[in-house]
Amino acid sequence: MKAHGEADIEAVAFPTVDAAAVAERLADVRRRIDRVAGDRAVRVVAVTKGFGSDAVDAAVAAGITAIGENFAHELEAKAGAGAGGTAVRWHFIGAIQRNKIPGLAPFVSVWHTVDRPAAVDAVARHSPGAAAFVQVNLSGDPTRPGCSWSDAPEMVAAARASGLTMRGLMGVGPAGPPEASREPFEALAALARRLGLPEVSMGMSGDFETAVAAGSTIVRLGTVLFGPRHRADDLRR
Ligand SMILES: *Cc1c(COP(=O)(O)O)cnc(C)c1O
């Protein structure tokens, strides 16, 4: 397909994914989650950034339909090509840039990274009523994304007033051992409860068990499902 030429070229650089291995890794992840979650339901978002459409297909084949992407161009290329089929719900977990919202909006079901008034406005305008999370900057490091702890209640109120369907709070654990995430994760879950929000999006490959123990309802997992990414554009740390 000529129209997708650019995406095709990029797809060549993505590592390929072994669907059977993904299914096995997911089964292992679910066992690890269940060990700490008890009978609480915890959803898995499969983060396919840095991988091609075959990773999306593998996740769907293994039973995950929530697919997370950080970069607008990757999400649009994979969603536009129909990766994973019609069951896929795309979760946008990257930094919200206003000029990227119109292109993303037709595809995205859940916005995890609403973190400032301009992001609330842009998402509410192009994706009215969409499900959204407010991202809180757990570390307080001003170079990291997310609103401050003290601004979070106001941001949630603004998002609610804009008509977005506020699902919960989202956070990325600090660098270091998983244990370093425990306190901020517990604080995020407590804040979500205080604000009447049912969900907490926290926990990545390195700290998802800590996150689930602290009350996470949605973990965002890439590496532990698909293996290491080859690209150096992972904005996490
Ligand atoms: C990349 C990323 C993930 C997944 O990271 P892994 O460590 O590979 O599981 C989850 N959430 C966000 C916000 C990310 O940027």
Brief descriptors of the model:
globular, 16% strand, eight-stranded parallel β-sheet, alpha/beta, disordered N terminus, 8 strands, binds pyridoxal-5'-phosphate, 10 helices, 237 residues
Task: Explain this structure.
There is one protein chain. The protein has helices at residues 5-13, 19-37, 53-61, 72-80, 101-104, 117-126, 152-161, 182-194, 208-213, 223-226; strands at residues 43-47, 66-69, 89-92, 108-114, 131-135, 165-170, 199-201, 218-221. The model is unreliable at 1-5 (pLDDT under 50). Helix 2 packs across helix 3 (53-61). Strands 7-6-5-4-3-2-1-8 form an eight-stranded parallel sheet. It is α/β, with parallel strands linked by helices and 237 residues long. Pyridoxal-5'-phosphate (PLP) binds next to strand 8 and helix 10.
Series of secondary-structure elements, N-terminal to C-terminal: HHEHEHEHEHEHEHEHEH
Described by the principal axes of the CA atoms, the overall outline is: globular
Instruction: Assign a percent range to the helix content.
Output: 25-40%
Number of helices: 10
**In order across it, which strands form the biggest sheet?**
7-6-5-4-3-2-1-8
- How large is the radius of gyration? 17 Å
* Total strand segments: 8
Percentage of residues in DSSP E strands: 15-25%
Can you tell me the residue ranges where pLDDT is under 50 for at least 5 consecutive residues? 1-5
Summed over residues and divided by their number, the pLDDT gives a mean of 93
